[in-house]
Specification:
Helix content is 30%, strand content 31%. It has 283 residues and is of the alpha+beta class. The protein folds into two domains: 198 residues, Hsp33 domain (3-Layer(bab) Sandwich), CATH 3.55.30; 68 residues, CBS domain Like (Alpha-Beta Complex). Strands 7-6-3-4-5-10-1-2-9-8 form a ten-stranded mixed β-sheet. Strands 12-11-13 form a three-stranded antiparallel β-sheet.
Length: 283
């Protein structure tokens, strides 16, 4: 794998995609150092630095989400929330084909848990209704958790492998594959798939760390949630801090802005749709 391209914008990663025709495998790989650095800088500014375990989970999750993104339709957006029973933790990840970006954050306070770990997934496209699913998952390894998601919900054998130097690889089964072979493929052989005799490079894509939130969108989302509960939001104050549920960025929301957005919503035949996950955090 070559060194990271210095021409990439900070936070970008170049993901290469391949096919192995005889083995019926679709493969993708990238060096995710710049994307991880962008996430850590953003998290330190708005949420806090993740500890050792959560840091590993976020790195695995962001890499897997980016690799997943390159193998999905361009108009698709997917959001995952992994609810861990022990330690109590919510890990949120999102991938946007429209923006070519991934984002994520963690919640380690006031987390409601069940007896087992659960994965909540919502997928949306420009046409059609959102598709949602919930499955029970095992373990703390996010790469293995997403492999479980593929097996149960997508019904496709997929491997996510972590290599050296912040390299991650995705191997996805194509029709006609020997599924048992892919499931049992040794890690080192999977990471060196580019040496297979039947590998053909098909394209590359750029994926960046970034959120789709901005002040206007956050105001519209908050207005939709609290339109009949102003005082629950403002609690007697003239403005309040709210945070994007996807990335944790803080925004100041005034009553004046809230009322203006509410008037706009009432003038529409229908209101703006929420972002598809938990409401913004109140500061």
């Amino acid at each position: 794998m070559p060194d990271v391209d210095p021409a990439l914008t900070p936070g970008d990663v170049r993901i290469e995609r391949f096919t192995a025709a005889e083995r019926n495998v679709l493969a993708a790989r990238g060096l995710f150092g710049p994307l991880f650095e962008a996430y850590l800088a953003h998290s330190a500014a708005w949420v806090g630095q993740p500890d050792g375990l959560v840091r590993v989970m976020m790195q695995q999750g962001l890499a897997a989400a980016a690799l997943y993104l390159t193998c999905r339709p361009a108009d698709e957006e997917t959001a995952w929330t992994v609810n861990f029973a022990e330690p109590p933790l919510n890990l949120f990840l999102a991938a946007s084909g429209r923006a070519g970006s991934v984002v994520g954050r963690y919640y380690d306070e006031h987390v409601e848990t069940a007896e087992s770990n659960r994965l909540f997934v919502q997928t949306t496209r420009r046409i059609g209704k959102p598709h949602t699913s919930v499955i029970e998952v095992r373990g703390l390894d996010v790469l293995l958790i997403l492999e479980q998601y593929y097996a149960q919900s997508e019904q496709t054998t997929t491997r996510f492998l972590e290599g050296e130097g912040e390299e991650f690889v995705m191997l996805m089964a194509l029709p006609g594959i020997d599924d048992a072979w892919l499931r049992q493929l040794p890690r080192e052989e999977g990471l060196s798939f580019a040496q297979w005799s039947d590998v053909h490079r098909i394209e590359e894509r750029i994926v960046r760390f970034g959120c789709l939130c901005d002040e206007e969108r956050i105001v519209e989302v908050v207005t939709g949630i609290f339109r009949e509960k102003r005082e629950e939001l403002f609690q007697g104050e003239s403005e309040v801090e709210v945070r994007c549920p996807r990335c944790g960025r803080a925004y100041r929301l005034s009553r004046e802005a809230f009322e203006g957005a509410l008037r706009r919503r009432r003038a529409q035949d229908r209101g703006a749709e929420p972002m598809g996950e938990d409401p913004p955090d109140r500061g």
